[in-house]
Amino acid sequence: MFHLHQLELFYYVARHGGISAAARHIPHGIGQPAISGQMAAMESDLGSRLFERRPFRLTHHGQLVYAYIRPMFDGLPQLWRQLRGLPTHTVSIAAAETLGHDLLAAIIDAAAPLPQGTRFELLTGRPDEIESWVQERKVQFAITPNDRRIRRISSQVIARLGLQLLVPPKAPILSPVHFWGQRTIAEPLICPPEDDPVYRAFVRGLKGLQVDWPARMHVDSPGTLRQLVARGQGVGLSLELPSPHPAARALPLTGFDRVPLVMLWRPPVSPLLKSLLTAVKTTAKMIWPVSSIQVAILLTGQWLSDTSDLITAIGATPWE
């Protein structure tokens, strides 16, 4: 027979995808060797494996156990808050720093009314940080530029954003053609990090134009990038967003790939999460109105040919 302590440890192992990850997330201190020993004892008593170690994968028996215990352990934090008279619904949302805080505020407005006692945690970060937050369930969902598949995360494209170059307001540059006509571009280039989808799309566009423009600086903060541009340190690269840049003038880049803006989440989809995902779609359509858009759904690392079940689950429909 399983012990409750063993089931708790297995819950963290299954939720976070391995013993080492579980050791980092269990709120009470317990080392990785102790967790390994308890998992081995569980499997010995059961007579079969609950999960494969490398790469991590729940077996059929492990999936049955996790499905049985997960509702209880998932609900314990909410029960604790309810018993103490605290807000019972905590929603953590993350957005890429590039998008700013206004988008998160607009999403909350669009999602109203929400259950009484709902409390929000609003975070901003880099695309790689946001992906890890969703993977680890630190946030319920996130909005970020993304152009690649992510294992075990569901996603939906809500807009495709163009690229733009930022120049000082008084710079005598009227169009990006100014740069393409130079044999060697004189102006320093300030870009997001090399692993950022915005930078990757820009590099592909330069290659198509047969233009070489090495970055002088890679900056992970959009605010810092704009300050550097305003101070005359170079030409900045950013997404084309509705809000103006008071410290810089934007030059839209035509002919470059548009960067997918996606919302990311991990199943299952609760009623509250469903309402928030729908609010994201509604807000995106108001901010970035489009006549047509390719909607892609990504689930557990596999592109789905039939997305009707997931679309129904979140109340989303492909845009006309």
Name the descriptors.
320 residues; D-Maltodextrin-Binding Protein, domain 2; 3 domains; seven-stranded mixed beta sheet; 11 helices; 14 strands; 20% strand
What this model shows, in words?
The longest helix is centred in the N-terminal third of the chain and has 24 residues, at about 60-85. Helix content is about 40%, strand content about 20%. Residues about 290-320 have low confidence and may be disordered. It has about 325 residues and is α/β, with parallel strands linked by helices. The protein is built from 11 helices and 14 strands. Helix 5 crosses helix 10. About 30% of the residues are buried. The strands form 3 sheets. It has a 7-stranded mixed beta sheet with strand order 4-3-5-12-6-13-14. Strands 9-8-10-7-11 form a 5-stranded mixed beta sheet. The N and C termini lie far apart (about 55 Å). It has 3 domains: about 5-85, Arc Repressor Mutant, subunit A, CATH 1.10.10.10; about 90-155 and about 260-315, Periplasmic binding protein-like II (D-Maltodextrin-Binding Protein, domain 2), CATH 3.40.190.10; about 165-255, D-Maltodextrin-Binding Protein, domain 2, CATH 3.40.190.
